[in-house]
Every structure is written in C-alpha cells, then in structure tokens.
Amino acid sequence: MxxxxxxxxxxxxxxxxxxxxxxxxxxxEDVLWSFTKLTEEVGELAEQINKRRGRQSAYKxxxxxxxxxxxxxxxxxxxxxxxxxxxxxxxxxxxxKKWKIETKLK
Length: 106
Ligand SMILES: [Mg+2]
Known about the structure:
This protein has helices at residues 3-21, 27-52, 65-85, 90-105. By secondary structure, the protein is an all-alpha fold. It has one domain: Orthogonal Bundle (Helix Hairpins), CATH 1.10.287.1080. α1 packs across α3 and α2 (27-52) packs antiparallel against α3 (65-85). The radius of gyration is 17 Å and the shape is globular. The two termini are 30 Å apart. The model has no long low-confidence stretch (mean pLDDT 88). Magnesium ion (MG) binds next to α2 and α3.
C-alpha cells in the first residue's frame, strides 16, 4: 500500500466513522475527538511499553508483541486521522519531514 492509497483509506475510514458514530457536525468537535483519541492511544502504547519492561506490576507477565504492535498501529492511525481532519496530504507531510531529518543529520 503506497501513501496515496493510505490517504484514501484514511479518508474512507473517516467517512465511515462519521456515518456510524458521529452526530456532531462541528469541525472543532471533530478535531477535538481525533486529538483525544490520539492521546488515549498514546496512553495505551505507554502501557504496552511498560508491560514489556516489566514495570506494569498487575500485568507483568501479560506482555505480547502483537498487542504492542496493535497499539503502535493505533497511534499511527489516530495521528493520521488528525491529519485528515486538517486536510493534510500525508505524502507531502512525510516528504517534508524526511527532508528536515536529512538536513539535520548532515
Ligand atoms: Mg489502542
């Protein structure tokens, strides 16, 4: 799947989520929902990392690589949905980020 296909997939997900769950028609509320969802997913990823490190005592032995990967995917998906909310073209965004990183590392 290339970046254009990912962008189309995300836009389709957004449309389907709107149809299924959302009744709020304010862009501000939409962005707020995406942002809080991203925050929630970052917290879940932190929990998985703590499990992997054995620092989450109640779940010390319940770490799974698949759960960690699922949470990484959730964070990427939630951040990308926020980009969709702001009509950001992911390919342009990632190319610019790549250029900035390469420039810093030279
Ligand atoms: Mg999650």
